[in-house]
Design goal:
171 residues; 9 helices; mainly alpha; two-stranded antiparallel sheet; globular
């Protein structure tokens, strides 16, 4: 089964992917770095684009049931369709839209960024390399990929590494 979505602004596709990346599924250095990257890009996009910030704030004020087109139709909700794939899909769509709306919350984004850096620092070895997973040795490939992500982030946002990020990179 395939789903095709079309957006007038292609950047919206990237915004739709950010909530998925913002919460790592595993304790790997690459997923933690990707989560830091996604949260930083989210904060930067919201700060740079008043239009995006307004859209996200508007969605943040809506209840979850208003996000899904399926859930908006009261006659469909009244039917006993709880076991159908359409209801499950509508719920997934609603939760995805709610996660996107949370991108406008700068406090939670800043908290997640700090948490990802703390967890990355826990993976950093004495020689400065990063372990792929906890209790593994440092890995040059993982260290290079994480450093590359942080460099790309610097190029995109123009923000120089500071605080915990600077400490992580200098070690």
């Amino acid at each position: 089964r395939y789903t095709v979505e079309l957006y007038a602004n292609p950047a919206w596709s990237a915004v739709m992917a950010l909530p998925v990346l913002a919460v790592p599924q595993r304790e790997s250095a690459l997923e933690l770095a990707a989560a830091y990257y996604a949260n930083t890009i989210s904060a930067w996009l919201v700060g740079e684009s008043q239009e995006l910030q307004q859209i996200l704030l508007q969605q943040n004020g809506k209840s979850a049931s208003t996000f899904s087109k399926f859930m908006q139709h009261s006659e469909l909700k009244a039917l006993q369709l709880e076991e159908t794939p359409w209801v499950a899909e509508a719920r997934e769509e609603s939760s995805a839209q709610a996660a996107i709306a949370q991108l406008a919350d700068q406090n939670s984004t800043a908290f997640r960024r700090a948490e990802m850096l703390r967890r990355l620092q826990a993976l950093q070895q004495g020689d400065g390399s990063l372990a792929w997973y906890p209790e593994m040795r440092g890995n040059s490939y993982v260290t290079a990929r994480v450093a590359e992500m942080f460099c790309r982030l610097h190029l995109l946002t123009g923000a120089a590494p500071e605080g915990e990020m600077k400490t992580l990179l200098e070690k």
